[in-house]
Amino acid sequence: MTRTMGFTHPTPSATSAPGTEGGRRALELLQQWPGEHRVAVGLSGGVDSSLTAALLHEARWSVTGVTLWLMKGRGACCSDGLVDAAGVCEQLGVTHHILDARETFQKEVVDSLVEGYGQGITPLPCSRCNRHVKMALLLHWAEREMGVSRLATGHYARLRRHPDSGRMELLRGRDRQKDQSYFLYDLPQEQLERLVFPLGELRKAETRAEARRHGLRTAAKPESQDLCLVEHHGSMAAFLETHLPSRPGKIVLRDGTVVGSHDGVQHFTIGQRRGLGVAWPEPLHVVRLDGAMNHVVVAPRSEAMRTDCAVTAINWVSIPPATAPMEVQVQVRYRSQPVTARLIPDGATQARLVFETPQFSITPGQAAVFYASDVLLGGGLITREID
Question: Is the full-model pTM beyond 0.85?
Answer without folding.
Answer: yes
